[in-house]
Structures are given as C-alpha cells and as structure tokens.
Amino acid sequence: MEDTKTQKSSSQREWIDLIGFFLGWFSIVGQFILTIENRQVDVFETIIRFFSFFTILTNLLVALYFTSRIPIFKKVSIRQMTNKGTITALTVFILVVGLVYQVVLRQTWHPTGFQRIIDELLHSVIPVFVLLYWVSFADIEDVKFKHLQKWLWFPALYFMYTLIRGHFSGYYPYPFINVLEIGYFQVIINCLIVSGVFLAILGVLLFAGHKIKK
C-alpha cells in the first residue's frame, strides 16, 4: 500500500516537473525572441543585455533545475541543480523576482500581446508555481542553511557585475540600480533593501520549511 502511494506521488511529481520544464523554457525562449525582434542596439550587445537581467538569470536557473529533473536529461544536467538546498535557494530568488516586479516595476511599463503573456509567466506564474512546488516536494535537507550558503553568492555577484559593467557601458537593467539616474548612494541603499528582502524571504522559508517538513 505504501509502495503504491509512493509510486503515485513520484509519478505526479514527474508530470509537475515536466510542466515546470515547459513553462521555464517557453518563457525564456519567448522573451529572447521578443528581445531580439525589438532590439535597439546590435545583436551582440542585445544578447549581453538580455542576460543582464536578474529575472532572466533566475528563470534560467529554474528552467535548468526542472531540466535536471527530466529523466532523459539527467546524464547531461548540471550537477549543482540536483544538490540539496537548490530548490529552496531558487524559490527565494524567484520570489524576489516576483515581489520586486509587483511592487516596484509593474507600473513602469504596460506590455501587450505576446509580451504580456511572457511577462506574466516570468514574474507571476513561475514564482507562484515554484513556491507551490517547494511546499509540495522540498524535504528537510532542502531547508538546512548549510546547503544554501554557497547560493548567497549569486545575488551578490550579480549586483557587483551589474554595477561594474554599467560603469563602463552606461547600461543598467533596472531603474533602482541605475547609477546615472539616481547616484551610487541611492543605488547602495536600494541594494541593501533588496538584500534585506532576500534574507527575509530566506528566513521565512527556512522557518516554515522546518515546521512543515517535520
């Protein structure tokens, strides 16, 4: 009886992994095509700018995670994606993407048509999907801080890279880190606020995770 229940749960997770796989790659590829079609600079610079968005990088990591869960891709999947704690770290990142967009960025533009669909997938649908996935399938090992420490470098390195490249290129992907518009002091304040959001969400997930998984 228990084996049958386990097999059913495993089968359900495989289907959900497949949904995550298609949602992730459809959104990223769709946004890439739209970015290339609507580019205002040369293709090479457009590609660099495309991968300069934390939204894109985070959704790419989510897509890679679900790719690593698909049996036919396991032999070529990135090992980091299968480590303990990965799903918790990705949940934190994608929730920050969704929260910052809803609170700070949604009012800055009003996409229509296919762009609106992709926009909602990247910033709303996938964050909620990943959160529900985490609640359903993360285990007690996934909510241990020791498995998450190395992931904290990801947002830190992103901010450093963005500021350094922005200094030389004059391009900043988000208005709240645009040094040319608001200055370094305000950018640092904004980065500290976002860092606080990161840590707050991480703390909530670790606390809730230990309660739920026990």
Topology:
Elements: H1 2-37, H2 43-50, H3 54-69, H4 86-105, H5 113-137, H6 153-169, H7 179-213
Helix pairs in contact: 1-3, 1-5, 3-4, 3-5, 4-5, 4-7
Account of the protein in words:
With 214 residues, the chain is mainly alpha-helical. The chain contains seven helices and no strands. Helix 1 packs antiparallel against helix 3 and helix 3 packs across helix 5. The mean pLDDT is 91.
Total of DSSP H or I helical runs spanning 4+ residues: 7
What is the percent of helical residues?
A: over 70%
Largest sheet: none
Write the H/E string, N to C: HHHHHHH
What do the pLDDT scores average to?
91
Q: How far is the first residue's CA from the last residue's CA?
A: 23 Å
What are the low-pLDDT stretches, counting only 5+ consecutive residues below 50?
none
Counted up, domains total 1
Counted beta strands: 0
Radius of gyration: 18 Å
Q: Which structural class matches the secondary elements?
A: mainly alpha
The general outline is globular
Strand content: under 5%
